[in-house]
Amino acid sequence: QKEVEQDPGPLSVPEGAIVSLNCTYSNSAFQYFMWYRQYSRKGPELLMYTYSSGNKEDGRFTAQVDKSSKYISLFIRDSQPSDSATYLCAMSLNAGNNRKLIWGLGTSLAVNP
Amino acid sequence: GEEVAQTPKHLVRGEGQKAKLYCAPIKGHSYVFWYQQVLKNEFKFLISFQNENVFDETGMPKERFSAKCLPNSPCSLEIQATKLEDSAVYFCASSPRTGTNEKLFFGSGTQLSVL
């Protein structure tokens, strides 16, 4: 079993839809949770970063972490064609000295105009 | 610079040949990371550096892979005697010196094709 599970999709939605992306994980020691967006032929870029359980909002993006269920989510409101990309979740045991991230496989999202 | 610069963008090698990839981290960033992404699969951590010192090399296949980050030079990842399974996109990332922010800045990757 992989440490981090993520449905690869593809997920196709109409412009303006609310998108929900999810990851589950097995290691209860993970404390730092991230969502990265990767466009084709580019490196990933960080979208959201959260520590422990809770919600975090940034513009159209909301990240949720439920440590009791080992489940994290990214919501995209009012989705745009420019949101079409692969979304990867990543997590780590601690910050500071250890930045080795464990990644999901990524979910491919297409937002259709 | 303000971007992580990786060269070359594409590299083709015959099986058994050597491959060398380069990464210039963002100026002022002390941490450099190498990741391998095989055929859109998950990122596999290879090695990290704090300045020129190896910080964590638990992901490196040590018999054929080596990496360096020397002062005033781009970091490098070298694969001796490449194998077909080394075909992947190799990403370099850098991060700032301090803080608990896990923000990694990634380059655009080097696509290595071993034929």
Report on the structure:
The complex is a heterodimer of chains A (113) and B (115). Chain A is mainly β. Chain A contains no helices and eleven strands. In chain A, strands 2, 4, 5, 9, 10 and 11 form a six-stranded mixed sheet that branches. Chain A has a five-stranded antiparallel sheet with strand order 1-3-8-7-6, with no helix packed on it. In chain A, a hairpin with a 6-residue loop joins strand 4 (32-38) and strand 5. Chain B has 115 residues and is mostly beta strands. In chain B, 0% of the residues lie in helices and 49% in strands. Chain B is built from no helices and eleven strands. In chain B, the strands form two sheets. In chain B, strands 2, 4, 5, 6, 9, 10 and 11 form a seven-stranded mixed sheet that branches. Chain B has a four-stranded antiparallel sheet with strand order 1-3-8-7, with no helix packed on it. In chain B, a hairpin with a 5-residue loop joins strand 4 (31-37) and strand 5 (43-50). At the A-B interface, strand 5 and strand 9 of A face strand 5 and strand 9 of B.
What is the secondary structure topology, with strand pairs?
The complex is a heterodimer of chains A (113) and B (115).
Chain A: E1 4-5, E2 11-14, E3 19-25, E4 32-38, E5 45-51, E6 54-58, E7 61-66, E8 71-76, E9 85-92, E10 102-103, E11 107-112
Parallel strand pairs in A: 2-11
Antiparallel strand pairs in A: 1-3, 3-8, 4-5, 4-9, 6-7, 7-8, 9-10, 9-11
Chain B: E1 5-7, E2 10-13, E3 19-24, E4 31-37, E5 43-50, E6 53-56, E7 65-68, E8 75-79, E9 88-95, E10 105-106, E11 110-114
Parallel strand pairs in B: 2-11
Antiparallel strand pairs in B: 1-3, 3-8, 4-5, 4-9, 5-6, 7-8, 9-10, 9-11
